[in-house]
Amino acid sequence: MDPAAVSPPAARIGLRQLLMVLGDSLVEVQAAPAGLDVEIREVSLLDPEDPPTAQPDELVLVIGARGRAAFPALRAAGRDGAAAVVVKLDGPAQAAALSEAAAEAGVALLSLRSEARWEQVHALARAALDDAPPGEPGMGAEEGDLFSLAQTTAVLTSGIVSIEDAANRVLAYSRTTDSDEADDLRRRSILGWQGPEGYLAKLREWGVFQHLHSSDEVIGIDSHPELGIRRRLAVAIRSGDRQLGTIWVQEGSIPLSERSRQALLGAARVAALHLVRRRRELSDDVTLTRTLLAGLLDGSTGPQPLATHLGFDATRPAAVLGFSYGTTEAYETAEGVAAPELTHSEVTNLVSVHIAARHRSALVTQVDPRIYVLLPQLPRGIDTDTLRGWTQEITDAARRHLGLPLSGSVGCLVPGLGDVPESRREADRILDAMASAGVTVAVAALPDIQAEVLVSEILTLLSARPEIRDPRLTALLSHDSRHQGRLAETLLTYLNSFGDIRAAAAQLHVHPNTLRYRLRRAEQLTGLDLSRPDQRLLAMLQLRLPPTG
Fold first, then answer.
1. Nearest 10 degrees: CA dihedral of 157, 161, 165, 171?
2. How many CB atoms lie within 10 A of CB 39?
3. Cα-based angle 151, 206, 234 (whole degrees, multiple of 5)
4. I want to staple 218 with a disulfide (CB 3.0 to 4.6 A). Which of 64, 138, 261, 382 is the partner?
5. Element at 85 (helix H, strand E)
6. 3 state SS of 312
7. From the CB of residue 56, how many other CB atoms can be counted at a distance below 10 Å?
8. Helix (H) or strand (E) holding 245
9. Closest CA relative to residue 412, chosen from 456, 457, 448
10. Using an 8 Å Cβ cutoff, are 264 and 249 in contact?
11. d(Cα 417, Cα 361) in Å, to the nearest integer?
């Protein structure tokens, strides 16, 4: 094995995540005896002339050895603790024999498409490792990566996405479940081939490249069946006046979504941050921005460091949006069950793409289990209704495209960055109430659910301070617990019904006389006097506390 071909130690990435990066356009899993959660730390090319060796946790690309000729490399990979081996196959019989050998060796076996190029796979795997944070498996849910961004953009546009650099080299692309959806240009681009010259000439003739070079607006390109090309949208990825690359969205078997152009604008702004980071021009700035943003949100850092760092006007209005999807458990999608770390990445990318399309200066960060959006230097005429609309778009998109019930809150508009902690606290108060008070709306500002927020905070105080609870109500709950009774439930339902016996009885599915008996029994057991307003008020609050177990 050529030592120069072995990648230096890097961050680790799970085989499952790497397969998502490479996609079924390039590789297929033939065997995975240890599952898809094995970790890869290095990537190497094994030439035919090299002795079959490997390194622990390595992805070995076996060049020029098809069929039985790949057996020695498989055995060596298993012996040396490699994570996976990639080979090219000549037919199903080879696949069965090599899969059996891989199972015996305890190493994953991937097959590379016959028309794909080894250097393409090596570059993509190397890029995925470079994007993974050191010491953590996965692809960096907080920062995300270009493949995850491409997939998010594909979901939002209902199209097939490719992200290219300024030299028209494909950097990342979305997954497709049906290979027939991808046209000839898409397949050639992913496999590292040059696009059809006739089509490229047409793009130059139509001024597409000139438009992308000079504008950040989305451009549409009609389908050309005679060239094997379907309809596309494209947008430049820009940093200032410089074009860093292009995002292309090809229409598949269904039309592109109505908001494809807006989603592309947001995706291009998010992609610009990734490409700048890849060039290592602002690698330290990314970390610094994250640190300053976190400090500003929690009030430990003043506004000036972030404003100076990013060139923001600290005296212009600002606001914070908050998002929560409640649990970190896996959730169901159209493609199956998504893991929690993919939830983080997909939701953060979705929020980033949507909000970047609406507000260029927006900053997105995740503070588990919530995602926050800082909207600095807002126009002075903007109002809460507008921000509520932006937030609603994001929660609708999460439900529509990810199948995820996302809750969104709109923090108060504040006059400048110095008051951002106040807006973040308000966003948190709303999310807390939405989680605990049974609020059914997906998006809210404080005026929408102010009563629910205040009641939720009062209940939090009661929960934390047992000494300010009425011991008679505590005794009533204990009695129900010991005797499987429903006296407390009956009392709360009665109070919530404004003392309407018949309405409360109907809600509990009991006869009104049964309800009257339960109320008298509750008073006899505890000494409560339901004719007194203060006792009724305290009962309404205290009986809403969650059970203590």
1. 130
2. 17
3. 15
4. 261
5. strand 84-88
6. coil
7. 11
8. strand 242-251
9. 448
10. yes
11. 13
Per the CB < 8 A criterion, the answer to whether 405 and 325 are in contact is yes
188 within 8 A of 196, measured Cβ to Cβ: yes
In 356-450, DSSP assigns E strands to 363-367, 370-375, 407-410, 443-445
Host H or E run for residue 378: none
Amino acid at 296: L
> Which residue type sits at 504?
A
Q: In sequence order, what are the residues at sequence separation of 6 or more whose Cβ sits closer than 8 angstroms to the Cβ of residue 166?
A: 243, 244, 245
For 26-52, give the secondary structure using H, E and C: CEEEEECCCCCCCEECEEEEECCCCCC
Task: Fill in the DSSP letter of residue 4.
Answer: G
Cβ neighbours, 10 Å, residue 192: 18
- End-to-end CA distance of the chain, in Å? 62
The strand pairing partners of 13, in sequence order, are 40
3-state secondary structure of 299: coil
Q: Read out DSSP for 324-376?
A: E-S--S-EEETTEEEPHHHHHHHHHHHHHHHHHHH-TT-EEEEETTEEEEEE-
- Give the position of tokens 């199956």: 336
* Among the listed residues 396, 458, 472, 467, the one whose alpha carbon sits nearest the alpha carbon of residue 429: 458
* pLDDT tens per residue across span 295-329: 899 888 889 888 888 889 999 999 999 999 854 44
User: Which amino acid, 372?
Assistant: Y
pLDDT tens figures, 242-281: 888 899 999 988 899 988 998 999 999 888 877 876 654 4
Which tokens go with 352? 């980033």
The pair of three-digit structure tokens given for residue 53, joined into one six-digit string: 């060796």
- Give the E-state strand segments of 376-477 in sequence order: 407-410, 443-445
The one-letter amino acid at 218 = V
Buried b (16+ CB within 10 A) or exposed e, 218-248: bbebeebeeeebbbbbbbbbbbeeebbbbbb
Domains along the sequence of the chain with CATH: 3-131 (3.40.1390.10), 146-278 (3.30.450.40), 300-338+360-461 (3.30.70), 465-542 (1.10.10.2840)
121 within 8 A of 22, measured Cβ to Cβ? yes
The confidence band for 3, taking pLDDT boundaries of 50, 70 and 90, is: very low
Q: How many CB atoms lie within 10 A of CB 502?
A: 10
Q: What values do phi and psi take at 87, rounded to 5?
A: -135, 170
Cα radius of gyration rounded to whole Å, the chain: 29
CB-CB contact of 58 with 43 (8 Å): yes
Is residue 131 within 8 A of residue 140, CB to CB? The reply is yes
Q: What is the DSSP string of 262-297?
A: HHHHHHHHHHHHHHHHHTTSSHHHHHHHHHHHHHHH
Integer Cα distance of 425 and 410 in angstroms: 11
DSSP line for 194-233: PPPHHHHHHHHHTTHHHHHHH--S-EEE--BGGGTB--EE
DSSP state of 402: I
DSSP 446: G
